[in-house]
Amino acid sequence: MNYSELLGTLEQNIANAIFGKRDVIRMCLAGIFAGGHILLEDVPGVGKTLLAQAAAKSISCSFRRIQFTPDLLPTDIVGSNVFNPAKHEFVFSKGSIFANIVLADEINRTTPRTQSAMLEAMNEQQVSIDGVTYPLPAPFIVFATENPMEFEGTYPLPESQLDRFLLRISVGYPDRQNEINVLKAHQKSRPLDAVQAVMTAEQVVEIQRAVSDVKVSDSIVKYILDIVETTRQSDELAAGVSTRGAISLSRISQSLALLEGRDFVIPDDVKKLAVPVFAHRVIPKTYLGSNQRETAEALIERLTESVAVPA
Question: What is the tens place of the pLDDT at every residue in 281-305?
Fold first, then answer.
């Protein structure tokens, strides 16, 4: 089946609320259809939460927003067993994680203990409470937003949780003309209010299955592993990319190829995605200007460029 028209409509629908960020929108859609979770990291006020909300409104599915704060508890996220006096028994009360799309807003403003409550859900699409496992709905996508670590009141995300995010994206400031358009649009109403659902949850699952049929040649597989091996051998990194990271790059490259109307992955797909997929999975030995993110991204970009591109 050709999904080009449906995917184009979805992308434009989100772009009606997020001005001048087509590349960021396409990257997010690639993450959704790869079945992964997306970490949006940037300074406050550039549209991280708006982007996640616009994506969720564009799909006819269940949506929950969790505002992460220092006093948030793990049971607020996954749920707990509550005693029912009428039945004289404990019944499971679902937490906010039980939705197709979950917005974990300012995820690094809560404690590591609460952050870790997301691990099983993000990795296994299920939660376990008192020895009982509860499946989460399909599709299940987490959009997490976070502020840079130098902002007050933030906690670092554990490496194990960072590794569960398929990609990390920076939204960035809009250019001058698009910022003018944003100001004009908000004079009348919120652009988000005009966003309508143009795709069903079932269609998302169908496209996620179609992503699996996109061809990844042996040369592309070798290219991905060559980049991974380069990160592991680098003297500038304390830890290179994991096998999960390699799988993630392969999977989202398939998704991006489908979004761009191809049934096969090309080297440019891999090069375009290497930084957002790998940079948050490595640990630089030294930081450029005390900024781990910028250092990691610069290193991954340089190491990717050093690997021979397959013909």
Answer: 998 887 655 567 778 899 999 999 9
Note the pLDDT tens digit of each residue in 85-130: 888 888 889 999 999 999 999 998 888 888 888 888 999 999 998 8
Stated pTM of the model: 0.90
DSSP bridge pairs for 288:
291
User: Half-sphere exposure of residue 69, counting CA atoms within 13 Å on the CB side?
Assistant: 6
Distance of CA 106 to the CA centre of its chain: 14
Give yes or no for a contact between 97 and 140, defined as CB atoms under 8 angstroms apart: no
* DSSP string over 194-245: G----EEHHHHHHHHHHHTTSB--HHHHHHHHHHHHHHHH-TTEEE---HHH
SS3 category, 17: coil
Q: Do residues 60 and 197 make contact, with C-beta atoms less than 8 angstroms apart?
A: yes
